[in-house]
Structure formats: C-alpha cells, structure tokens
Amino acid sequence: MALPKRRQSKTRKRKRRTHYKLKAINYEECPNCHEPKLPHFVCSHCGYYNRRPILKIKEKEK
Questions:
Q1: Is position 33 within any domain?
Q2: pLDDT at position 62, please?
Q3: pLDDT, tens digit, for every residue of 13-28?
Q4: Residue 61: is its pLDDT beyond 80?
Q5: Structural domain of residue 29, as residue ranges?
Q6: Which of the residues 2, 12, 26, 34 has the least number of beta carbons within 10 Å of its own beta carbon?
Q7: Within a domain: residue 46?
Q8: Per the domain annotation, does 28 fall within a domain?
C-alpha cells in the first residue's frame, strides 16, 4: 500500500478543503401568497405549487 513520503503542510491541507463549505439556502417568493419558500417545493403557507392548489392548509383559529 502506498504511503506519503512527506507530511502535507497545514496550508496545503486547508487549500484543498476550501470547497467543503456550506451553501446558503436560496428562497424564492411564492407567486400566490408572496411568502418565501424553497424552490421546487409546495408553499407551506398557502399549499400552492406552480400556481395550482396541491394541499389544503387549515387556517389557524384566533
């Protein structure tokens, strides 16, 4: 089994790991109720997807 001949420096290791970061979540506006929602998901506020009703959302009682 091959082994490294020399130890890699901290800088070299950190340069390689620069791409291991988290990406920010992109939200878009629901065209029906204008609430923020995840793209390609049913809106959790109104239950619409692609301007069509998919889910029936119960309204909160006051």
A1: yes
A2: 64
A3: 999 999 998 989 999 9
A4: no
A5: 23-62
A6: 2
A7: yes
A8: yes
